[in-house]
Structure of TPC2 protein:
Amino acid sequence: MRTATYFFIFLNLSLAVFEEPAVYPLPFLVTSAVEVLCLLVFFGRLTHFAKVTLRSVFWKDTKNICIMVAILLSLTDLTIYGVLRIYNIRSVRWSRIVRPIFLINFAESRQIRRAFRSIRNTLPEITYVFLLFMFSLLMFSLMALKLFGERNLQTAEGLPYFRNYLEIVFDLYVLVTTANSPDVMMPAFDFSSWYALFFIAFVIVNTYIFMSLFLAVVYNNYKKHLKVMFGGAD
């Protein structure tokens, strides 16, 4: 039964590959039939669990409530989406985001729940580092706006360079990953080679210092919570 549960969870999650918009699109009737089959299996598994569990215990378990809510939401969304398709009205399958709930909340997924809880417990403790990183990013973006915004520079495509604050924030956020380096600094570098120091300082502070600090905090807190929960009750 555990193998069957995992198989249908995997099948349900894999539908995203075949549903519109999809990598390998299949007809709506095929994907909807598979999804209904998966939901029926999940409902049957939940019903079986209810038969061998005390009613008071079953209804106090939030995992069971989450599964039932996810099934109802998925069926409701599937029905609405199907009706709208009949009238050629485009819509979005918003219930896809609830599919991981089945992976986390079934009784067979105890280790996954422990890992998920460790991640959840880690998030509040890394908030301060994340806020400090965002403050650094916003300050560097403000400096970039003041440095380059009034110089009427243009990108290689002829677009305005660093004149919109939100676009600057996004470009520098991408620069943290070095995905747009060195292209993002070339208009400023062509104007004056000294401007390269700004981008070098940004990469040192945000990519090498903050990202390393962020990774260290995430790893240490996750490991701490995982050790605490490893021998705890489910």
Q: What stands out?
A: The chain has a mean pLDDT of 88.
